[in-house]
Amino acid sequence: MAIVLDDPELEIRIRDLAAASGRTPEELLRERLYLFRPRPPLTPEEVDERLRIIDEVTERLRGAPDLDPRPADEILGYGADGVPE
Question: pLDDT truncated to tens, each residue of the chain (85 aa)?
Fold first, then answer.
């Protein structure tokens, strides 16, 4: 099935993006459309695996040294009244 674009500006933009990325217009559109396709829900096993990975990373980061001893509010720029300065 062929798709006809009746929008010259859209066609120019697609061609420009494709040229800048080194892809054909078809490759670019296919790649972008797949990003927005509905994905099936995760299985319980996939959820468990992702949670395991998050826990593993969290544990590694817990042991990381504190590189800035200032309080979080000071780092973020909040004043004594809780409003950004």
Answer: 678 888 999 999 999 999 999 999 999 999 988 888 888 999 999 999 999 999 999 999 998 998 999 988 888 888 888 788 7
Within a domain: 71: no
Q: Are 28 and 17 in contact (CB under 8 A)?
A: yes
The C-alpha atoms of residue 19 and residue 5 are separated, in whole angstroms, by 18
Question: Could you list the residue range(s) of the whole structural domain that residue 48 is in?
Answer: 9-61
Q: Is residue 32 part of a domain?
A: yes
Percent helix / strand / coil, the chain, rounded to 5 = 60, 0, 40
With respect to residue 83, please indicate whether it lies within any of the assigned structural domains. Answer: no
